[in-house]
Amino acid sequence: MLAKTVEKILLEFNPQKRNLLPVLKNINSVFGYVSAKDAQKVADYFSLPLALIFQTASFYDEIKTKKSSAIVIQVCSSSNCAVNGAFNLVREIEIFLKIKAGDDNNLKIKLEEISCLGHCGEGPIMLVNGKKYERVNVSELYKILEEWLGN
Amino acid sequence: MKNELKIITKDWDKLNPLRIEDYIAIGGYQSLEKFISKLKPSEIIAEIKESQLAGRGGAGFLMGEKLAQVAEEKGTKYFICNLDESEPGTYKDRAIVDHNPHLLLEGIILCSLAIGAEKAFIYLNGRYEEQREILAQAIQQARKKYFLGKNIFQSDYKLSIELFSGAGAYICGEETALINSLEGNRGEPKLKPPYPVKAGLFGCPTVINNAETIANIPWIIKNSGEKYKEIGSISSPGSKLFILGGVVKNKGLIEAQTGITLRELIYDFGGGLLSGKEFWFAQLGGSSGRLLLEDELDIKLDFNKKNQYPLGSGSVLVVDKTVDIYDLMLSWASFFRRESCGKCVPCREGTFRLWGIIKRLRDREISQRDKEAMEDILWTLNNTTFCPLGKFSATAIQDAITKLGKDIFKKNN
């Protein structure tokens, strides 16, 4: 399969402002984030100022404007997951990996708390690089971490 | 079971969501056919008005009123189905799509044609990727059967439905923020008035309704608004989807009449609490909802404006004493800190400071100054924010302090 470029993604959409969010989501899903260079290309294509592109991009959780860490662990901390022990998982990961939730500056690994994904019956929910794990308890947590960090 | 009802959840076990034939076999799209062959748009709106159907997203605005206002307007109009479900603990709209997407489509088509819109949008939660696929297939199938597109049922009616995914923002469930997001802007709420019924999407009159509200429409058209009005509570009749979570035996989705009490919901439908668990409180309507203690379980759940305990999204979280209340409070506070859009200062700063204080409370480092500041912040969030999100962020924590107060600070000493 040919590699997808920003230009190719752009050509799939009309340069109307209402297509801006879908374009940004698309770029984000292919490249992992929207870089300043790519944002400039989007701005040129839509004939909008670069600031406006970032204005929209920076608002949404699912669109990143910075290169993210190699491994991103996300734990749902909304109420139903919280009563099922989501914060225990967060504390456990923080101690085990010696990282802090919400710390953006570690290029290797990142831990963040996220909002409800609508799978409340199956909590606590944890995502590692987008892969979903349900009903995670502490012993399972270590299995999952091992799976991703193995060596 | 008493108060049991199947309007939206009817025949869910028999349906394959990916097959339109299944839905047609149980009488699907008959309401649409009835409308095209026999009724005028104004008659549909009259029927919905008669039914007293209130919006199921939380605010409880009468749907018939909204439709009637937009139907009077001229020019281009839009209909938007709000499926940006992101209230913690709520997945009723996702369940509708997972089980019966065509019910939702039929509702959308009926409403759009009634107000004279030729284009409808479904604004999906960005995380609902599977549901987007299901809906995309359903739209394809409906188009092939001429329920959508040009010349619906060989008539002059036409409609196209477009799917639009959000990108993870709770505030985009608010209607003006949703419109901003659809237009490609930051999903921040706008000042009302003008209301979307006057100037909504791209400045045109727009009706925005929650998916669950829309899913009631086919039944109303088929069986008349008068019959719908007889169901459940007098002030806001009909069916409501509830989500039970926490320490109840049967977790999950329940369809019941409005006006049911929380006690009936937890003990009759939910099968009571898990063995060995002792009821402490229940939270009604997700993270933005109020807390109810044991002696308040007999209040009736409906969308009456005077109701002290708003129903909100309809999710119920049952909490027992083994739950770490500090974790739960931190969950509320951090949720609203993340989801505050940053447009107005009281909410942006208030949710952030509140989160800081709750964090210190959890870590047993709270000071006297924090306690005083907390009252100040809660008042500010309650009274001065631009949109209801600020108020939501204060509700549960305020309730926790006033209702569970002694318990909360006692542990602290």
Mean pLDDT of chain A: 93
Number of strands of chain B: 9
CATH superfamily of the largest domain in chain B: NADH-ubiquinone oxidoreductase 51kDa subunit
Mean of pLDDT of chain B = 93
Largest sheet of chain A: 4 strands, mixed
Q: Taking strands numbered 1, 2, ... along the chain, how are they ordered across the largest sheet of chain A? A: 2-1-3-4
The strand order across the widest sheet of chain B is: 6-5-9-7-8
Helix count of chain A, per DSSP? 7
Quaternary structure: heterodimer
Radius of gyration of chain A: 18 Å
Helix content of chain B: 40-55%
CATH superfamily of the largest domain in chain A: Glutaredoxin
Radius of gyration of chain B over all CA atoms, rounded: 22 Å
The SSE string of chain A, one letter per element, is HHHHEHHEEEH
> Quick one: biggest sheet of chain B?
5 strands, mixed
- What is the helix/strand order of chain B? HHHHEHHEHEHEHHHEEHEEEHHHHH
Can you put this structure into words, describing what you see?
With 151 residues, chain A is α+β, with helices and mostly antiparallel strands. Chain A has 2 domains: 6-57; 71-149, Glutaredoxin. Chain A has 7 helices and 4 strands, in the order ααααβααβββα. With 413 residues, chain B is an alpha/beta fold. Helix content of chain B is 44%, strand content 13%. In chain B, the strands form 2 sheets. A 5-stranded mixed beta sheet of chain B has the order 6-5-9-7-8. A 4-stranded parallel beta sheet of chain B has the order 3-2-1-4, with helices on both faces. In chain B, strand 2, helix 7 (129-144) and strand 3 form a beta-alpha-beta unit. The A-B interface holds A 16-22, 24-25, 55-56, 59-63, 77-83, 86-87, 113-121 and B 85-91, 94, 125-128, 164-170, 181-188, 243, 245-246, 251-252, 283, 286-287, 315, 317, 319, 323-324, 327-328, 330-332, 334-335, 338-339, 341.
